[in-house]
Amino acid sequence: MGTVYLVSFKEGAGKTAIAGGMAQWLLSQGKKVGYFKPVGLQASGKPGDDKDTVFLKQTLNLSDTVETLNPVATTPDKVATLTTSPVINDIKAAFAKVSSGKDTVIVESTSGHGNGELAASLQAKIILIARYERDLNENELLVVARSFGASLLGVIINAIPSVSMRQAKQDTAAFLEKEGIKVLGLFPEDRVMLGMTVKDVAGHLGAKIFQGEAHVNNFVENFMVGALTLDPAVDYFAQCAGKLVITRYDRPDIAWCALETPTVGLLLTSGGTPIPYVSDKAKAFDVPIITLPKDTVATITALEDIFSKVGVHYKEKALRSKEIFVNHANLGAFTSI
Predict the structure, then answer these.
(1) Helix crossing, 315-328 with 51-60: angle to 10°?
(2) Would the CA dihedral through 104, 6, 187, 221 be positive or negative?
(3) Distance between CA 4 and CA 241 in Å, rounded?
(4) Which residue, among 173, 171, 167, has the nearest Cα to 154 in the 3D structure?
(5) How far apart are CA 143 and CA 106, in angstroms?
(6) Are 40 and 47 a contacting pair, CB within 8 Å?
(7) What's the confidence (pLDDT) of residue 111?
(8) Measured in whole angstroms, how far is the alpha carbon of residue 9 from the centre of its chain?
(9) Mean pLDDT by 10 residues, the chain (337 residues)
(10) Domains and CATH numbers, the chain
(11) Sequence-distant (≥ 6) Cβ neighbours of residue 193 within 8 angstroms
(12) Rounded CA separation 55/12 (Å)
């Protein structure tokens, strides 16, 4: 049996998505795959509440209980203290159950915990995951990678914007390979992986669901603002699918044109009531409408940090994570795991 231990260079690197993508690919290769998260961080500090574990249990159709897949839970302020023998013994006992009958177990680490030591106790190979940044400190990344010694399988650079992919290949990847660190994949930034539901947007903004509550789980991949443009409105909105359109409530011409193209939601700003023929057309196309008292500029400003607050726990992201792994991982490095 092979064990892979995913460790992040910094928080928010995308471990859960990569774990899901890797697991789904291994399953498609006929492997028996397990998932394990030794330590979970929850406000409650209770096993069974870890959202990543619940999500991947469902995605991978795992038979183990959430409490077995995530045997130890704590709050963020106490994670560094979980180094005692009883805790390690609990983790090992749960891992023995999870790994029974499996070809591969993917272990997801928790930031702040003694991951190197725990990986060694599970006889795991380590994959270090770093989210791409323009000012990514390559020397610091190299130091962390080397700290795992012979246990390191390699590094994955995740969420690389398309405009930075060339630089990531020529600079970051080339630097690591020159220093003897295998680069196992350069994963692009992806609109689906940044997506969310209309309901998420409403919750983030404190917006009112005016109509279409049955469709507020429509998945948003793009935001488009209805404003003055040199292109005809329908042509402008046709540029993006899976979009939520933001415009003033008193611009029915813009809302109507948006609804002529694939649209998953309307966000009407400035506090008024949608004009009936816009409401009727949105209803006919199963497009929910959410409303907000703020003007359009203030709304856009309020949305600036939404991407950092939306997780990976969506079926759309589960499917896309496999596609990204298959298309951008060095699959040859994983076939012998």
Answers:
(1) 70
(2) positive
(3) 37
(4) 173
(5) 24
(6) yes
(7) 65
(8) 16
(9) 91 93 96 93 69 94 94 71 69 93 93 69 92 93 94 96 96 97 97 95 97 97 79 84 95 93 97 93 97 95 89 94 97 84
(10) 2-190+312-333 (3.40.50.300), 196-308 (3.40.1390.20)
(11) 14, 17, 159, 312, 317, 320, 321, 324
(12) 17
* Assigned token pair, 124: 């795991």
Tell me if residue 183 falls in helix, strand or coil. Answer: strand
Give the length of the chain: 337
Q: Tell me how far apart the alpha carbons of residues 169 and 331 are, in angstroms, rounded to a whole number.
A: 17
Which three-class secondary structure state does DSSP give residue 235? Answer: helix
Task: Measure the CA–CA gap between 73 and 50, rounded to whole angstroms.
Answer: 8
Cβ 155 vs Cβ 178: under 8 Å: no
Kind plus residue range of the DSSP H or E element containing 211: strand 208-211
Which two structure tokens, joined as six digits, stand for 306? 């939404």
SS3 content of the chain, % helix, strand, coil (to 5): 45, 20, 35
What does the angle CA 107 – CA 155 – CA 124 come to, to the nearest 5 degrees?
Answer: 35
